[in-house]
Amino acid sequence: MKFDDLLPDKKTPAKHKTSKGKLIDVKIAEEEIEINGRKFLLIQVCDFTEESHALDKLFLSEEKLRTTLYSIGDGVIVTDDKGRVTIMNPVAEKLTGWKEKDAKAKKLDSVFRIVNEFSRKNADNPVKRVLREGAVVGLANHTLLISKDGKEYPILDCAAPIKNSQGKLTGVVLVFRDQSKEREAQRKIEEARKLSDGIVETIREPLVILDKNFRIIRANKAFYSKFDTKPENVEGKIFFDIENKSWNIPELKRLLKKILPQNTSFNDFVVEHNFTRIGKKTMLLNARRIYRDGNKTEMILLAIEDITNRKESEEKIKKYNRLYEVLSNINQSIVRIDDERKLLKTITEIAVSKGDFKLAWLGKRDGNLLKEASKAGRDELFPYDKIDIDKADSNLLKDVLLKKEKKILNSPREYKKDKYLRKAAENGAKACALLPITPNDDSWGALILVSDQLEFFDAEEIKLLDELTLDISFALDYYRKEKERLAAEKIIRDNEALYRTLLESSEDSIYLVDPEGNYLYMNNKYLSRLGKTHAEVIGKHYSEFHTPEGTDEFLDRINYVIANRKPVTYEYKSNRDGRYFIRTLSPACDKIHNTVNAVTIISKDITERRITELQLKESEEKFRKLAESTNTAIFIYRNTKFVYANRATEILTGYNAEELYKMNFWDVVHTDDRELIIERGMARLRGEKVPAQYEFRVIRRDGEIRWISFTATIIEYQGDTAAIGTAFDITDKKIAEEALKESEERFRAIFENLTVGVYRAKTDGRLIMVNPSFVEMLGCESVDDVLKNHTIWDFCSDTERREQFYRILLEEGIVYRFEEVWKKKDGTLINVKESARA
Length: 838
Known about the structure:
The protein is built from 26 helices and 35 strands. The chain is extended and about 190 Å long.
């Protein structure tokens, strides 16, 4: 056997079987050596079976550790004692953005970058602390891990030291967890809590949460607001003890005690109480069990609703419904009953039977007496069939009748001294309403309503009572007007003959034709114009007495009046005798059938007026010649248009007459003045009183603005109302006035703002003008105070010195820095230097 055959494979380490068949682990080392000049190969074979077994165990242990680290859901980073990364599990790789192979041997700060969530400052490295302190440490709250790719993760972590068997620190293990989901869950929980708190605080009804011992855990803002209290007066207190034991009600305690043991609830428990701070209220309570999972706590949620206003509203609605029923029944009676006495009796009966009044008394005025017209209810409350409104020292009804003003008396103290109403107070009446009845605004009488309830009449009921009195007044006015109508019809019938006589005696021709032009009626004046008798004309056609041309024109106008249902007035000249007439055609309407069944014609002779107009025209020509020869602008406007303008008007406005005749009279007026000029111009044409002379601006055709002084008066022009105006250009005067005004304003501004006292006075010492500094210097209240109540002599302490001042001023015309001693309003003396000019 060769020596090599005894050796195992040259691989190190290797397995070797001994002569006894035992398999061992060996290490082989070869080395060349030289002995006595000869080279030999020295082979060393070493048994390291036990060492190999130990290494195998270590390898298995490390594999188990790595498998464990790679399997857990938290991020794990292991460093050596220098803070360099040695191990990273996949979760750590994902959160840091680093692969393990890339991170190995790198400083932890490069791989595991953490900052404060709010300040964004770098957070303390936990591994450094462990290496420094040798103890387990955790991250601060609100720590963000910033990944290699920039993503941010909220994390929670801790770091622990790794020590060998001798206790030497050999590294650090860092365990951290992504808290994103926990944060989101926590955020939702917090949002839900805030939402629930917000809902509780937003609910308008008071809410209270009680523990099992009925101590108040919490109350919402509405509770504190409603009961005008604070948390320190409520929270932690027994519910039945707060508010001076307002809630210590046996039945309420019984219901609340059943809620937790029996898991019951209750609704609409009514509490009426006069609370300490908020007064008498009606509260509606609802309660149920609530359970908090977090700390396994049972509680009672108590909701309190203030229904005071609702109950009052319900009572008001009942009362208003009664009044509406009264109004409805009375209105039906007004429609149904046509006898005034019977209606008044029905009204008082309805007021008592339907309106819950204890008395209803209607009185009708007869001079100074108010006489009973109708009464229902308790007679002892107002036992009078008539009263004298002038004989009582205190008589509320007198004011009602004379001033036509209602009196609402909601308490006996308001009427117990009244001569007539004290009986009502003595017999149990609590409230009275005295209401004027005023048909057509006449003081007819009064309605008295009596109730046995204090404060019975509120604002809404008073409105309904106003409506009631209006309805009664309307009915009485209707009865009165119906009587008047019947009387008027009789008068009309009696006077028809008189009206016919008036028509027949009229100087105007009056006749009536049907839509076809046939005569239905004509007066004597018209018959005399035709030279015919009534029998010769009635029923005949218009054409039988007039020319064809005149007939056609007349029928056209008849058709127009019928089609448009409005009158037409026009002038025509008679072919018979050449006289002039104004003819008015008016439709005669059948209102029942809404048709025009005839046309009335009134023909007035205006021949004399026409002659006068011709003479006036001649006069106008003379006026026109005069107007054209003057430098004063003269113009006439009718309705809104210029109808005449002389040459001076053309020069003033820059427009020629033809252009002006197409314009409204205000079109040349400056826009800032136009509204006033339109208002006055139209008012003048309506005959209203307006200033005859005033100034305003006009805009010439070339855009130049000129001021004018304007005078106008009303004239009759060509048969119509018109206005004639004259105008002078006062622009230069206005410019001078503005310059003067500006100068005065500059002077006043300087005068008012001077810091030295300035005054103007007459030679007798009366003050004309003073500035604020003068007022302040002398301790006076105001400029008005000085001017109204003082002279300059009031402020001079040395009369002789003052007289010397005036002598110098009058002789030389000027005084410069004259020294005096003056006295202020309060008597204090002051030294002044005065400069003046006469």
